[in-house]
Write a structure and sequence with these properties.
The complex is a heterodimer.
Chain A lengths: L3 E16 L5 E17 L3 E5 L6 H8 L7 E6 L2 E2 L5 H8 L2 E4 L13 H11 L8 H11 L16 H13 L5 E5 L7 H18 L2 E6 L2 H7 L2 E6 L2 E7 H6 L4 H9 L5 H6 L40 E2 L5 E2 L9
Chain B lengths: L3 E12 L2 E13 L4 E5 L6 H8 L8 E10 L2 E2 L5 H7 L4 E4 L13 H12 L4 H14 L5 H4 L9 H13 L5 E5 L7 H18 L2 E6 L2 H7 L2 E6 L2 E7 H6 L4 H8 L49 E4 L2 E3 L2 H4 L4
Helix pairs in contact in B: 3-4, 3-6, 4-6, 6-7
Classes of the chains: A alpha/beta, B alpha/beta.
Chain lengths: 328, 324
């Protein structure tokens, strides 16, 4: 195991739900992230998958300290971000960068590529202003764009090129960890492949850790070393990417895997499919016990009794299901 | 006789920056009960093709420059608005991509759901509601009797897409055009919706044009696939052939870029460059500038779609010459 860059310890992020017009009072709590423990090593790529509303984006925002944590600890290189002062958090943020889903919305349309990429360099005084252009040129080349593009505006670029610019911006401060929230889901397949290749290459060459959030399991399997599957604010399965996707243990992961359409007509038409009934439950009013039990084909009475903890399946693979052994 | 026969459809958009040839000479036909997949990247003209058939192209700037689309004897592109209205929403229905914005937030689901019935059939409102309710149950909405009078915001994304499907199918159309109906949904919900479309198609025997950029979705659902690039069909084949033996370099490249088919750790194949600017399409084959099999002549001569096998046609000069 390489040195740990990020350690999440029982992280919880809850949002209060208020109602009433004059007398606002709290009427409920959305437990968007509810007890996530996860370690990411230097240079490691961890994929985080789950359906919309499972809390994966909130977890990303929690790690970035963009939303206040309700409990637990986010430890980046030994420093706890949840208890640090604003100045401390700001200093550590250099090592922690984010790439967002929509490259059309995440770049400021009024800033040139140079202004976008130079801003973090100047704010953190990485290079003197006189050298900023040279540095920005290097960054652009690093992500496969020509330095000539520096004075253009975002609207002059295609979606894939914009995502490259967003990645260059995240790389500007040479972070240790990048969180990429659905970085390829807005892109076409051929462009998606380019961005995936770029991210893998950067991680390898710069020993960069990556938390890759996506809902597309085939993409996640391709890029990740390990995969974490989230359901309703909790991690329900965690292990090496190939293990989790080819031999899933948790019934939810099995359903997710079986829902991915296979681009091979013979296999696609002959396989057994687990079609889950219904939608994920509301996080405002989660079911008792295992949150997945109302949709689970293997649910029993004891699944309603308590929240199952992540338990080891083998040395590197964990699942949060009390029945994983029985269901084979 | 095919249910739908489209010949040489051209839809151009006349803008201040020039003429965009969004669809540039598309011909295909569709049999009763057949499922046709229309695959391509954004901007390849797949949605514009569908919108053209139903008279949904905003004009200006859009204009249908040429072509015919015969649906059971009527040319959809040249019939009167009244004739089109009698077909659209009754014999041909459409499901749109985004279930969040395709329903009217001000109207109850019941009103939107039975509107096609009230317009196209002489039916009492109570009977229409009963059919609406049966349709909602058929698409798998639990507790439909209570929910039918709700508003769209009370439904989740997957449920709204089910409502859209129920609305499209309530008149029992002969042809359903589905424009990326599952792209905005989670995989588990996508699996439910695809299952539903398959089942209803079996029961009702309707033909489906399924527009998508996801080859995985196509592989389980479609009888035949058409691959579009830069406003043209570059390859068409039955689904098995297209997956087992794609001939056109673009179809092959698309297949190679799918992560799940590649061994882990290997670099994914990528298509160099970008799709062409449709206002200034390159001479010859539009894919030539990005093609790894490009040869002399590709940039001079326009390839036509030609049969290269029993159920396969390809628009590539080199394939047609037997070189690939």
């Amino acid at each position: 195991m390489p040195e740990t860059i990020l350690q999440l310890q029982d992280v919880r992020t809850h949002f209060a739900v208020e109602s009433g017009f004059l007398l606002r009072r709290q009427t409920g709590t959305v437990k968007a992230v509810d007890g996530v423990t996860l370690a990411i090593g230097a240079g490691e790529v961890v994929g985080l998958v789950g359906e919309s509303g499972c809390g994966k984006s909130t977890l990303a925002r929690t790690i970035m300290q963009l939303v206040p944590t309700t409990g637990g600890a986010v430890v980046l290189e030994g420093r706890n971000l949840t208890t640090g002062t604003t100045a401390e958090v700001k200093a550590v943020r250099r090592d922690l960068q984010m790439v967002f889903q929509d490259p059309f919305a995440s770049l400021n349309p009024r800033m040139t590529v140079f202004a976008t990429l130079a801003e973090p360099l100047l704010v953190h005084r990485v290079v003197p202003a006189a050298q900023a252009r040279a540095r920005v040129g290097q960054l652009l080349e690093r992500v496969g764009l020509s330095a000539r593009y520096m004075d253009k505006y975002p609207h002059e670029f295609s979606g894939g090129q914009r995502q490259r610019i967003a990645i260059a911006r995240a790389l500007a401060l040479e972070p240790k960890l990048i969180i990429a929230d659905e970085p390829v889901s807005a892109l076409d397949v051929s462009i998606q492949a380019q961005i995936l290749n770029l991210l893998s290459q950067l991680c390898r060459e710069m020993n960069l850790a990556l938390l890759f959030i996506a809902h597309d399991l085939s993409v996640v399997k391709h890029i990740s070393d390990r995969v974490a599957v989230m359901y309703l604010g909790r991690i329900v399965e965690l292990g090496p990417a190939v293990e989790v996707i080819e031999r899933p243990r948790h019934p939810y992961t099995r359903a997710l895997v079986s829902a991915i359409p296979i681009p091979d007509p013979d296999r696609e038409r002959s396989r057994q499919r687990v079609v889950l009934p219904g939608d994920p439950p509301s996080p405002l009013n989660p079911p008792a016990g295992c949150a997945f039990h109302p949709r689970c084909p293997h649910a029993q009475d004891r699944c309603r009794a308590g929240v199952p903890p992540l338990t080891p399946v083998d040395a590197t693979h964990e699942a949060a299901c009390v029945r994983w052994q029985e269901i084979g | 006789m095919p249910l739908l026969e489209v010949t040489d459809l051209r839809t151009y958009f006349h803008t201040r920056r020039g003429v965009y040839r969004a669809v540039d000479g598309v011909s295909f036909s569709l049999e009763k009960g057949e499922t046709l997949g229309l695959v391509g990247e954004s901007g390849s003209g797949k949605s514009v093709t569908c919108y053209s058939l139903l008279g949904l192209i905003p004009s200006p700037p859009g204009r249908i420059e040429s072509g015919r689309a015969r649906f059971d004897g009527t040319d959809l592109l040249h019939c009167s608005p009244a004739e089109l209205r009698a077909i659209r929403g009754r014999r041909i229905s459409m499901i749109f991509q985004d279930p969040m914005t395709s329903l009217n937030p001000y109207l109850r689901v019941s009103e939107q759901l039975i509107e096609p019935l009230l317009i196209h059939e002489k039916i009492a409102k109570a009977d229409a509601l009963a059919r609406g309710l049966a349709m909602l149950e058929a698409v798998g909405i639990n507790d439909a009797a209570a929910r039918i009078h709700g508003y769209p915001h009370e439904f989740s994304g997957g449920m709204r897409q089910r409502v859209m499907i129920a609305m499209a199918l309530i008149t029992r159309p002969e042809l359903l055009i589905a424009d990326e109906p599952t792209t905005a949904l989670d995989v588990t919900v996508q699996a439910q919706i695809l299952e539903l479309i398959r089942r209803l198609q079996r029961e009702m025997g309707m033909a489906v044009i399924f527009v998508t950029h996801d080859l995985g979705v196509v592989s389980g659902l479609c009888d035949r696939v058409q691959v579009m690039y830069a406003g043209r069909i570059v390859e068409t084949a039955d689904t098995r052939t297209l997956f087992k033996a794609p001939r056109h370099p673009y179809s092959r490249a698309l297949q190679c870029s799918i992560p799940s088919l590649q061994p882990k750790g290997r670099e994914l194949y990528t298509i160099p460059g970008l799709p062409p600017d449709l206002s200034k399409p390159p001479a010859g084959c539009a894919f030539a500038p990005r093609c790894d099999q490009v040869a002399e002549g590709c940039q001079q001569r326009d390839p036509r779609l030609q049969a290269v096998g029993a159920s396969q046609a390809t628009a590539c000069l080199r394939v047609q010459a037997g070189e690939l």
